[in-house]
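Our collaborator T.R. sent over the components below with a one-line note: 'Predict the complex.' Nothing else. No constraints on interfaces, no templates requested, no preferences about which chain binds where. So this is a plain run: every listed entity goes in together, and whatever single assembly comes back becomes the starting point for the next discussion.
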Amino acid sequence: MRISEAKTELLKEPEILGGMRPLMEQLYPICRSITGQGVRDTLEVIGSRIGLDMVAVPTGTQAFDWTVPKEWNVKGAYIKGPNGDTVVDFARLNLHLVNYSAPFRGVMSLSDLKPHLHSLPEHPDWVPYRTSYYSESWGFCLSHNQLQSLQDGSYEVVVDTSLGDGVLNYGEFLVRGETEREVLFSCHICHPSLGNDNLSGIAVATTLADMLTRMKTRLSYRFLFIPGTIGSIVWLSRNEEWASRIVHGLVLTCIGDAGGFTYKRSRRGDSLTDRYMEHALRRFGVPSQIQDFSPYGYDERQFCSPGFDLPVGCLMRTPHGCYPEYHTSADNLEFVKQQSLEESLRLCLDFIELAENDAVLVNQNPKCEPQLGRRGLYKAVGGQHRQQDFQMAVLWILNQSDGQHSLLDIAERSGIDFATIRHAAERLQDAELLRPAGRA
Amino acid sequence: MRISEAKTELLKEPEILGGMRPLMEQLYPICRSITGQGVRDTLEVIGSRIGLDMVAVPTGTQAFDWTVPKEWNVKGAYIKGPNGDTVVDFARLNLHLVNYSAPFRGVMSLSDLKPHLHSLPEHPDWVPYRTSYYSESWGFCLSHNQLQSLQDGSYEVVVDTSLGDGVLNYGEFLVRGETEREVLFSCHICHPSLGNDNLSGIAVATTLADMLTRMKTRLSYRFLFIPGTIGSIVWLSRNEEWASRIVHGLVLTCIGDAGGFTYKRSRRGDSLTDRYMEHALRRFGVPSQIQDFSPYGYDERQFCSPGFDLPVGCLMRTPHGCYPEYHTSADNLEFVKQQSLEESLRLCLDFIELAENDAVLVNQNPKCEPQLGRRGLYKAVGGQHRQQDFQMAVLWILNQSDGQHSLLDIAERSGIDFATIRHAAERLQDAELLRPAGRA
Amino acid sequence: MRISEAKTELLKEPEILGGMRPLMEQLYPICRSITGQGVRDTLEVIGSRIGLDMVAVPTGTQAFDWTVPKEWNVKGAYIKGPNGDTVVDFARLNLHLVNYSAPFRGVMSLSDLKPHLHSLPEHPDWVPYRTSYYSESWGFCLSHNQLQSLQDGSYEVVVDTSLGDGVLNYGEFLVRGETEREVLFSCHICHPSLGNDNLSGIAVATTLADMLTRMKTRLSYRFLFIPGTIGSIVWLSRNEEWASRIVHGLVLTCIGDAGGFTYKRSRRGDSLTDRYMEHALRRFGVPSQIQDFSPYGYDERQFCSPGFDLPVGCLMRTPHGCYPEYHTSADNLEFVKQQSLEESLRLCLDFIELAENDAVLVNQNPKCEPQLGRRGLYKAVGGQHRQQDFQMAVLWILNQSDGQHSLLDIAERSGIDFATIRHAAERLQDAELLRPAGRA
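Returned assembly:
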């Protein structure tokens, strides 16, 4: 169908698969946080690829139980050592500054400074990523080796940040299909120089959005580029009425590392989103694991809160917290593999194909089998194994299409590939032996 | 109950078990097809055992999406070789002629003849069985050894058949029980000299029908002897209104070979037909496998089409296509074992006993256990293990007979033999502690 | 909550755990049966611990299908041997007399006497326990060694019992809670000098009742001390209207031996009673097995008869009939272990805590997660593992509390200890983020 061919064509264009890494390289140095200029810069880069709407919500706006926080911006931040050398500098790596640090200037001894310094003794070369959202404080992150090399003496600390009224920004992009029923793809954009945990999701989502604009689709596709937690809460509070249009959804995160896939089910656990993704994974040929929903993780927590209970799952490769590079400077662009990004993109496309093509069709000749031979549907063409699958697909579809079973149901019950089932269903529709009963 | 004793008595009569092989021997030489004199001859032989109705449906009659085909008859068919010898002759073995071959006469070279010749290289001594329904052509089947021994030269081909307006025949036999609810036994009669794939089912079905005429039954039993596919479609089209009377059904085919049993479930998968047959198989003491329904096989395809969805399963021993002799001259009367036929017959009787005796009964003293002692139902008789089963059966029946559980449910939950459950239920009915709630 | 602290305090009082054995020692010598003075003596001993109601139901009273039997009393019973020595004497061990023996006096030869003597050849030192309810006869039980040592000669038999109009007694004790919904604990009091099969249940039930009178509870607790079978039937016949108040129930029997726990499910199999007990057992740390309901055993047979179908299970350690000492003199007070009694008591208290504390609560902020930080519910306190459990418990409760899931559901789905879930639920109720929807 439309999407299958479009997909094949587009994946041949070099800028599609080849465009993900340059996008990540452009975004990597930007100091993102839940608010601030870094978020806007990020959304502009993404917007240069796809026609993004950048939304701005003022500080202090109520969003359900939450309030939009102050906007945070950084001019610079550094620590100078006893001999006047700059020992830690935000300009060199934005992870050095605890994200959302409150402004501070002062001179202090090493022992007074130390409570503000964070390192990772178990990975002495890596710089950790830390945040201080929702509690006004400041701090720096550095490698444990550097921390241990610091000499006693007087240190000058400059945290030239601002925390004040402003806005929270997020990006939103809708690809309109034939119907208003929406598939949501959401990724967070609040992590600074981190590759897998942020940029991988952004790169895949942006590329997907770009591809979908060039396809004809039945469903509409909504892409959210939002700061974690507060972003999804703000979006839901502003779209409460429309949220029920979302018939499927995926949070995309950590989808660039070398590990196999992890799919975390939606709260419902047996939604079509879950069934499509699990079906796609079984066929994909990359090791994968399925996790039941739990109320800890990414923005699926909000989409799956009981007042919404949307069919939104979370696609990852190695889950957050399960790889040592997580939330450290080692989660950099080298940690993200091109092959992994491409597989993640293709898997999302497989998912979309299922969502686009699944349907409940009704056998128009339900009493006994129809005479397939005179319609050219019986041992029609040559070609061995596939042909036998096609023949069995025809029989399975006719037998099961009583209005209670979708094409996916039939694919799963028969063990025949969904693509073959869909192809056979199209032939049967052409022969007027099947008619849509409504779409799944 | 009535059927159990009748069964035991009848199985002692030598002509019951001993009558199956002579019937098969009588039927074996007849050249059956989906239409023609061979079908009528076959039905007359069966009719000499049981009072069969032979139904005739004219060529061209519409049956749902199908049309009754032309009637096919054979006067003779042979190939004479370059030296004038008859090298292949229908009169010697009816499998030599491709079934439903169109008439033809001609002289041709071996190379022109060869596309019309069929053999089995992997079994060079066997003659294959081939048909050309629904495409007018002709052909011959022979052993691969013979095919390879044919010399170049001129061959005379005579296919003295006719394809013309006539009738499609099938046989139908109803054993009326106390109710109009029917159990269907169906077997196909369209295969010529093949033993397991045709005659085994006919022999067991005929014998069952014969036995049932001599029993008192609650349910009615309908036997169909029909050409495959078109026969069941024609029957369903003529009995559309009545088909819902069928409360259980079994297609009987390939039930004479030496393999274990195979039961293919009805489309519903959990119908009482399925539960009875699976229960009977678990108790029978012959290895068996259960297959889920699939829309490929015998006439259960039509009975289980979604517009009917009848509770009809298929009983086989080794399934079609799973033994090398399938659809070859090696599926002959030696391939069919007397012991296997007898086991298949007994299994069908066990199935019938379950269908006759299962019931939902209601405990008339549902509050606390009744005082069994004063009714002679507590440690009533001696006899060890069986007695303990009887005692537990009484308690299980009383506990579970709340109108929601059938005797089969109780047998399965308790792990007690159905016969013991049924016997205990009768004693409890005698004691007026149980009353039928309606029959299962 | 209230019960948890009360439980901890009470278990520290030495007379609680220490009072079980003295109670059993006091009860052990009494000759109990289904009726008679032994039952009254037993109920008076129990009544000296808790304020028991002793109910008396006259002989001949109808109870569903049953009739209250005659009252049985014993003045004495013995056998004198050929040389005038008393060889068997009820006064030495009440098991020597077949329980419910009809009065008899006579002199007879050993061979005439032997049919009235019962022994256990496989355990030659043990005296069996036998009854003759519902058939008027008499008999004596003795060790097999003693039986074999009896010399030929003339024996004088005296069975100085009476069987006449009187009453059937049982004891009933209700601890009223805030609601009229009741938890039933039932144990039988019809076995004479037997320890595990009778006294263990009585000791634990009496102690539980005593403890509950000193607690504040939401549910009411009813304790029945009844003769087996006829006692529960009589009780149900007199409380038919009220029986539906019973929301949980346990028959306590054989809960003092050294074996692991056995829980036999109620007829429903998935009642909250079953879920609470199975949850408690999984957490308890003593090996346990779960049995499905079967209509054989103790008074759960009556409570679970289809006309009542109450959620009443049966708690045992080694089940009846599965230990060789069962129904013999070897089931004495030494066979009952103090540690086992204590564990059984504690397990019942765990069960009660679940029944008291389980509830369906409703998230009052169901759209997105609430801001936990400003309520002190996010990384609130230190303390590692427990704290993480607490944090996850908060998230699980908020996510699942949609009115469809109880705290037990949430504990089971999340894998978090029920106590942690309950504690987190209380904190969330304090923060007005949860509100009861009705009690489970």
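Summary for T.R.: Chain C is about 35% helix and 25% strand.
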